[in-house]
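Subgroup meeting minutes
Present: P.N., E.W., G.H.
Scribe: E.W.

1. P.N. recapped why we're keeping a running log of single-chain structure predictions: easier to compare across weeks, and new members can see raw inputs and outputs side by side.
2. G.H. added today's entry (389 aa).
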Amino acid sequence: MDPTRLPDGLAPWAVRASDSRGRLHAEPTGGARSPFQRDRDRIIHATAFRRLQYKTQVFVYHEGDHFRTRLTHSLEVAQIARSVARELALEEDLAEALALAHDLGHPPFGHAGEDALDAAMKPYGGFDHNAQSLKAVTALETRYAGFDGLNLTWETLEGLAKHNGPLRRPSPYIVEYDRLHPLDLTTHASAEAQVAALADDIAYNNHDLDDGVKAGLFTLEEAATLPLVKTAYDAARQQHPTLPKDRATSEVVRRVINAMVNDVVAETRRRIAALKPASAADIRAHDRPVVAFSDAMMEANNELRAFLFQRMYRHWRVNRTTQKCKRALQVLFSLLHGEPRLLPPWWQDKAGDPGSQAAARAVCDYLAGMTDRYALEEHKRLTDPTIPG
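Output recorded in log:
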């Protein structure tokens, strides 16, 4: 037997369903599914998950049929997370659940939408999509008779709250929820949560590279000036010298993902060997993440991110669309915050008085849950007098 695995097939430092801290609202246990499998299934069936189909990753939905959306991004993150978790003998179902849920709080229009809501919510604590993801699964989903939210396990909620690591200055909703259901905010999350977070980095940098080439924002050869991409590009061209451009791009991206995944596995094993953890608690108590890139890969990843920032996220074509969408969300917030009676009845009940903090929070939740398509349609309905409300 592999000495790093116990009889159940997991490493000693993996999270185990049998040791779960449970759910805020007690439910019967047992059945064919483990608690983390039930979490995953609840996330997939959530309304917030379905909405990711029409939420921007970089390109707004009407710009093309083949670019990534938040939904396809989440599925790619889940695939990478499961692969890494399996290789490291971690709890795959927990890693997958966290990967599928990590972007549930993203508003329409990608980071432009997040910036718009953060600016509008500045007097009320700002807007953070990680906190909004936690709010979606603990309050905003209303699928069950006995409770609001999805009543996920403590381990899944912990991983969502600490997606970017320990929280020294948590956002208002996380503070509010932590009072009700403490999530140990100042420690690191489980190794499974760390895997999901790094899988997010691997997925979005690589699929943005793929989408950027296919959108004509830069060429594959320009991206290959980066050492990490060049290694994959040279290997692909050497093995397949006559490969067409579209296939060459996919081949290069596949090789870069593989290089990143292999690096994470090797570096994590090195850190585990040095730490010698005996339990998941040792992972949480450590002073730095155990799931990580090597220093060399971290530098290469940062170079790729900087390239994408300059050549894609700040490209004039992307800027034009995102600025229009950002203004649309700002207008919607201003109109609805000042006149909550324009909201659907359920949201009116939550909003209260015009211009109030309660109204701001309700309007923010309402807008954050929208798809790109619905937000643009709502903007037309509220600003174009020729369109019936």
